[in-house]
């Protein structure tokens, strides 16, 4: 839960950052901020937390140029805004921050594009060790939905809400709030968590009662999952000790969706310990399934081939399993969507495919 | 509500269609299906229902060519599938239908692309006068969310759920199901319905308690609204006699979002009476607001200018209000996002802008 205490820690860290600039000035140094280099070559596997984090290489934002000085000025203004926001128990979106800067008294401190303000917030996350959610910065788009035997309590601005994610929700399920750390898990009957890429497949599983029959919690990823969706998935795994499996289309873009659940992204490796579920496993559609279940396919486009080749060189996919599957796919030159399972009938996915795959994986 | 009776009507109409092909065959005619021409030049304003519907021009799908005959064969197979689906009280997505056709015994009846199966379902909607929802065809992506003083009952496959859209939901709100005709409105305290384009603005309104202070129901459109979102908006207006206002960014694409709520789309003018809320009014961001509130703007791109010019020629936008606003925008050559209101502070939208605009419109 995002508590008063979390808010105070966030404020403190932000003020510490500003104080550091001040101390550098006071001691006659040129103020600067050091930030890990955020590229594929600077991520390393952390054995302890089992996630990919940034390595030792850093980049410096220094006031030794006009451009650099302006960056630190903007950082100082943003810090002031965030500290005030936390004090008032308000929140805002990244886009609102960008527009809001137009009201700042110093024109040099105003952001010239939303990319600039977005990046600054990421920098502040990294340097302060506090997540954007704890700054009370909301994303533009909300998380997805849950359906399954889970009872939770959400702390809203309007008081607590206790919600059972099957009995108290409509067919659309429970909408994950922007900051899922406002949720406490009260009770559950879940055997495993099933993250599903597409809305069509999510609805299929719910219509067929898969969550009821197999005591599973269906998490709709809605394509590339929002931070809120990844965060709640991680918390379900860590706090309730539940296996997590990911069910997507069978193409390189969907493997990246799996990757973002399991390994985190290169752009936000500073958040891996907060967002990634390294124990999450991939159900499919595997290239092997395309062959085994003789699924309707589309040919790989050039961009698919490039993406697969780039995955072969990505340290996060350097396992025997992924090497084998990706090489198989490059060999058969085909991809398949998860809804292609409907070519064997609408119940094939819940009666045959998932039970077979989950048994083979030892989840059932 | 989608009742057993609705299902029976849908089945009957579908079987009637197939019977018509049969009768045509039996009487020695070449089977055919007549469908309204779906272009901008063939939509007319229906004075009675106040929505734009198709005019008199029709296109014919006839079996007098191999291509045409194959189309009718596919229609016959799809009709059989839909009738069976309704009998079994199942449902499926458009994509599942496409894949499922691979299991049909006649290869000529299988769809060669999803565009083809999508279009066939639209044709069947038009010819049968039954909506896709009543065929039990689900969209890929679900509707958006509601937040406000509304108590409803949703008929789910797992029984009835009674939900208050403030007291029984988290901050994410109530997720609209794929077919909102499974909802009954039980009780409400709503003065007006406020449809909002972006997630960031929706969250701002909810954080600021705008729904509580003004007794309004906030409907998140999520960009171009899904059918489910438009349908429930229309039902709120018609059944509860509530004013509906639409709040979007200030650019031509957003005016189209307003247009799809108010007037329906050219592609689905056969559904206007089911989906469109012609009494819905546009709050803003109006081009006039850009000037009046001195909002941060972006210059119009060429594609924006083209879209605005095309709207000037669109019969649905041929009103004094829209002509004036669009000409003003072409003149100032600027557009603004709804979140640009944050340049005047995070509460400006709820304390000043919306109260001023809604008072001027007579809604408050």
Automatic annotation (TrEMBL), chains A, B:
Domain Topoisomerase 6 subunit A/Spo11 TOPRIM: 192-358
Reaction catalysis annotation: ATP-dependent breakage, passage and rejoining of double-stranded DNA
Domain Spo11/DNA topoisomerase VI subunit A N-terminal: 70-136
Enzyme Commission numbers on file: 5.6.2.2
GO biological process, one term: DNA topological change
SUPFAM superfamilies (alphabetical): DNA topoisomerase IV, alpha subunit
Gene Ontology MF, one: magnesium ion binding
CC cofactor: Mg(2+)
Record's keyword terms, sorted: ATP-binding, DNA-binding, Isomerase, Magnesium, Metal-binding, Nucleotide-binding, Topoisomerase
Type II DNA topoisomerase VI subunit A all-beta domain span: 140-189
One protein family per Pfam: Topo_VI_alpha
Active site, renumbered: 99
Superkingdom as given in the UniProt entry: Archaea
Residues given in the record as Mg(2+) binding sites: 197, 249
Enzyme superclass (EC): isomerase
Family: Belongs to the TOP6A family.
Function in brief: Relaxes both positive and negative superturns and exhibits a strong decatenase activity.
Assembly behavior: Homodimer. Heterotetramer of two Top6A and two Top6B chains.
Protein name: Type 2 DNA topoisomerase 6 subunit A
Provenance organism: Halobellus rubicundus
């Amino acid at each position: 839960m995002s508590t008063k205490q979390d808010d105070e820690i966030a404020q403190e860290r932000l003020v510490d950052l500003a104080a550091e600039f001040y101390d550098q000035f006071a001691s006659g140094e040129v103020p600067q901020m050091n930030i890990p280099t955020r590229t594929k070559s600077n991520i390393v596997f952390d054995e302890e937390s089992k996630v990919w984090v940034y390595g030792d290489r850093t980049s410096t934002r220094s006031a030794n140029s006009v451009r650099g000085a302006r960056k630190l000025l903007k950082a100082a203004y943003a810090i002031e805004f965030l500290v005030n926001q936390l004090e008032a128990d308000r929140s805002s979106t990244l886009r609102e921050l960008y527009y809001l800067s137009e009201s700042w008294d110093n024109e040099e401190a105003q952001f010239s594009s939303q990319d600039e303000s977005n990046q600054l917030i990421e920098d502040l996350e990294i340097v302060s060790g506090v997540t954007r959610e704890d700054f009370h910065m909301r994303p533009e788009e909300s998380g997805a939905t849950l359906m399954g035997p889970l009872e939770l309590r959400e702390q809203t601005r309007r008081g607590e809400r206790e919600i059972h994610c099957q009995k108290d929700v409509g067919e659309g399920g429970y909408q994950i709030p922007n900051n899922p750390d406002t949720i406490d898990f009260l009770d559950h009957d879940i055997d495993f968590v099933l993250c599903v890429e597409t809305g069509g497949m999510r609805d299929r599983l719910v219509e067929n009662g898969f969550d009821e029959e197999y005591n599973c919690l269906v998490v709709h990823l809605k394509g590339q999952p929002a931070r809120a969706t990844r965060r709640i998935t991680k918390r379900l795994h860590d706090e309730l000790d539940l296996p997590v499996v990911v069910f997507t289309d069978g193409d390189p873009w969907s493997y990246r969706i799996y990757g973002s659940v399991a390994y985190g992204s290169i752009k936000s490796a500073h958040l891996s310990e907060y967002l990634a579920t390294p124990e999450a496993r991939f159900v499919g559609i595997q290239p092997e399934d395309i062959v085994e279940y003789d699924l309707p396919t589309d040919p790989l486009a050039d961009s698919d081939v490039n993406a697969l080749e780039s995955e072969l060189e990505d340290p996060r996919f350097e396992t025997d399993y992924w090497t084998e599957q990706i090489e198989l796919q490059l060999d058969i030159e085909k991809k398949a969507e998860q809804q292609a399972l409907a070519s064997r009938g609408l119940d094939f996915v819940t009666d045959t495919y998932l039970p077979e795959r989950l048994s083979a994986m030892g989840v059932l």
